[in-house]
Design brief:
3 domains; 14 helices; Glutaredoxin; alpha/beta; seven-stranded mixed sheet
Length: about 350
């Protein structure tokens, strides 16, 4: 009824028809609010009260001034964030069977919290610790957080998943409810993302080049290093690699950027043929022989696929002058924009 009335609302305040419908909407809204408050007062522990609390946004009281009279500009945001879950128990498993909990959860992590991995980890831990007394709620929140950050919307937020993996999954806190399929998925992704988070030192690459000469990533000296893991038989690689080379030859190479192309699959002959046909000069083209891979496997060490999470191609990483990972999974255009932004930032630094 309320939606139908809102659709009929046209004109402006002062018009008889507008004022009449607007007054009805206000009256209905107040009646609904009174009904909710009455239910919450009479039945504070009811499921309906909890649902009403989930649907309700925090009401922000007027801000007070700082001692020196300065207005607290972030007061409203902090109050809203800190009171977003007021009246909701993280141990009430009845909420899992309602259609409103997931939406509230998603809005909290997508819209309310700062999209910084370290901050997200803190709030995730608070939520999980609060839900710990109830296994079903703990399972709901941990699995929802895992789903959200195992393949996150924003670059770098996979660090949140790695944090969850190390703190909760590796310590056995989810063993009671994980089936083998889910456990394998979580552990495979956890181990694959551990070593390539934004800010970490890039894992060493010990390979050989097209002439069979040894190659070490640590031997490269450059303001930026681009590592592209690719396959000469991969359709997407066939499109992206030549485009990346074009911008490298036209722009990046002059700035001292180093390009490293790592053959993942596709066969050595196909790889060499593609390099020659597309004139990919100036790159360090490297790969591992089967013997090198076997030696790493027998030593119980992770291979480059795990270290760099190479489960699809092309997989691209951008390193700074200290070989720290500063970006990953970007297109060649995004890489260019990222490097330009980094250069401008560095120029502003004292």
């Amino acid at each position: 009824a309320m939606n139908d009335l809102r659709k009929k609302l046209s004109g402006k305040a002062g018009d008889p028809a507008y004022d009449s419908i607007n007054n009805i909407i206000k009256t209905l809204g107040q009646s609904m609010q009174d009904y909710r408050m009455d239910i919450q007062k009479k039945y504070p522990n009811s499921l309906l009260t909890s649902i009403f609390n989930i649907l309700k946004d925090p009401e922000i009281p007027p801000a007070s001034n700082h001692p020196k009279g300065k207005y607290d500009s972030v007061y409203a945001y902090n109050y809203y964030k800190d009171h977003f879950w007021d009246g909701i128990s993280f141990t009430d498993e009845r909420l899992i069977r309602t259609p409103v909990l997931q939406g509230k959860f998603d809005r909290y992590y997508d819209e309310v919290l700062p999209q910084v991995p370290d901050s997200l980890m803190v709030y995730a831990d608070k939520m999980l610790q609060s839900s710990k007394p109830n296994e079903e709620m703990f399972k709901f929140f941990l699995s929802s957080l895992t789903d959200k950050y195992v393949n996150p919307k924003y670059m770098g937020q996979d660090a949140v998943f790695v944090h969850l993996f190390e703190k909760y999954f590796l310590t056995g806190q989810a063993d009671s409810w994980m089936n083998e399929q889910y456990k394998k998925f979580v552990f495979d992704r956890g181990y694959s993302l551990m070593s390539n988070r934004i800010g970490l030192k890039a894992p060493e690459l010990q390979m050989i080049d097209t002439l069979g000469k040894p190659f070490l990533l640590s031997s490269i000296q450059a303001p930026f290093t681009v590592i592209c893991f690719w396959d000469p038989t991969c359709g997407h690689c066939k499109e992206e690699v030549p485009k990346m080379d074009s911008i490298y030859q036209a722009k990046w190479r002059k700035s001292g950027v180093k390009m490293i192309g790592v053959m993942v699959d596709g066969g050595k002959q196909n790889w060499l043929k593609f390099i020659k046909e597309h004139n990919l000069v100036g790159w360090s083209h490297i790969y591992q022989t089967d013997e090198m891979k076997d030696k790493i496997y027998k030593a119980g060490k992770p291979g480059f696929r795990q270290l760099y999470d190479v489960y699809q191609t092309p997989m691209v990483y951008l390193l700074d002058n200290n070989k720290n990972i500063i970006a990953k999974k970007l297109s060649y255009l995004q890489l260019d924009e990222f490097m330009e932004a980094k250069k401008k930032l560095q120029q502003k630094l004292p």
